[in-house]
Design goal:
Blueprint (H helix, E strand, L loop, with lengths): L13 H8 L22 E2 L2 E2 L14 H4 L2 E5 L5 E5 H15 L4 E6 L4 H15 L1 H7 L13 E8 L2 E3 L2 H4 L3 H11 L4 E3 L6 H4 L7 E4 L3 H10 L3 H5 L8 E3 L8 H15 L6 E7 L7 H10 L7 E10 L14 E11 L6 E6 L1
Parallel strand pairs: 10-11
Antiparallel strand pairs: 1-2, 3-4, 5-6, 6-7, 6-9, 8-9, 11-12, 12-13, 13-14
């Protein structure tokens, strides 16, 4: 992501990504069942576990920042970038291979410390309030960028740096060629299209993750599964997404809303998403829109939409306020937006 733009500092801004990808909860390929990750000596070096999972529900190991060894370099736009040393070596090999085919990339960002993330959270809390900060800023300790193994690429085309997400997303053919070479150097594409309910993030063709094992990287890539599925932390099947028919919204409008729901669902550790369906145009009323603006007076919303979700909770419910090992059906999600803004989850529940 572009580190200098307001929205791209933070990993959890799925809304911005939705505007450019227009993707939803379905994927053209079926998700295969997870395989149990083997213990592989190559995935550890000097105490660093290259298969570490850091996401919205899995925290960075407490001793990680003391153990990780990094390097710094200056990218083509003059920014300092910090990367785990072995991941950087692999990146240079990937970069050299791509250049043989006339594809030029550089690193926009990699490691961001927990302390830096906390400073960002504190600043936003002070300036905008706690609720806004929690919704906008990745929780310190739960960002994959803390590891130094997550790398955000940007493109260099005809000598010009293409660093903004809305510009980069257009080069689908180039990204496809880049992705085809990732596994050879121990990288995987981290946030797959249509898997927001697992990863908690929208599709990011530029966000790659180093796991230090080309064989495992190839297996994950060939099976078209997420890192979570490979490690067995998500074992659910692919959900059914029903956009129905609407005379008010396009399917892309509805897909954008579904991604917001899926990103939120990814916080519910251990829950299995069964289905999401559009509640219909009957819910698109002035009364419901007024209710959204009552709940969030700062929203100044002009559009409203409702979806219904079916999901199953785990036996170990943890901190979630649901009944354990239970099915929930017709669970309501209300979203709203302005005419030129992205969807925002305003209310959910029964």
């Amino acid at each position: 992501m572009k580190t200098k733009s307001f929205v791209s500092i933070f990993l959890c801004l799925c809304m911005m990504l939705v505007a450019f990808t227009g993707c939803g909860g379905n994927s053209s390929k079926p998700t295969e069942s997870a395989t149990e990750a083997p213990t592989v000596a190559e995935t550890k070096n000097d105490g660093i576990d290259y298969m570490v999972l850091v996401n919205k529900t899995h925290k960075l190991p407490d001793d990680w920042e003391q153990k990780v060894e990094t390097v710094h370099f200056t990218n083509s736009v003059g920014d300092d970038v910090e990367v785990e040393k072995k991941a950087y070596d692999a990146y240079l090999k990937l970069k050299a291979d791509l250049e043989k085919e006339g594809i030029y990339v550089d690193l926009d960002s990699a490691r961001r410390s927990v302390a830096e993330q906390q400073r960002i959270m504190d600043d936003f809390t002070k300036q905008y309030g706690k609720d806004y900060a929690l919704k906008t800023v990745a929780t310190p300790g739960y960002s994959e960028h803390h590891t130094g193994l997550a790398l955000d690429l940007y493109l260099i085309i005809d000598g010009k740096d293409i660093t903004e997400n809305e510009d980069m997303i257009k080069y689908t053919d180039i990204w496809s060629k880049i992705h085809s070479k990732l596994a050879d150097y121990g990288f995987i594409l981290r946030y797959l299209e249509g898997r927001e309910y697992i990863t908690g993030y929208g599709y990011e063709p530029w966000h790659i993750r180093y796991i230090d094992n080309p064989e495992i990287a190839k297996e994950i890539t060939d099976k078209d599964i997420t890192f979570e599925e490979y490690l067995g932390t998500y074992k659910g099947s692919k959900p059914v997404i029903d956009y129905g028919s609407s005379s008010v919204y396009t399917e892309d409008d509805l897909k954008a809303a579904v991604i917001q729901i899926e990103c939120k669902f990814a916080f519910w550790n251990g829950c299995e998403l069964k289905s999401i369906r559009y509640a219909g145009d009957d819910a698109v009323t002035d009364k419901n829109l007024a209710r959204m603006n009552e709940i969030n007076p700062d929203g100044k919303f002009t559009k409203v939409v409702e979806f219904l979700m079916d999901f199953h909770t785990p036996k170990d419910i943890g901190d979630l306020t649901f009944n354990p090992d239970s099915d929930y059906t017709d669970y309501q999600w209300w979203l709203a937006r302005t005419d030129d803004g992205g969807w925002e989850i305003v209310s959910f529940g029964y």
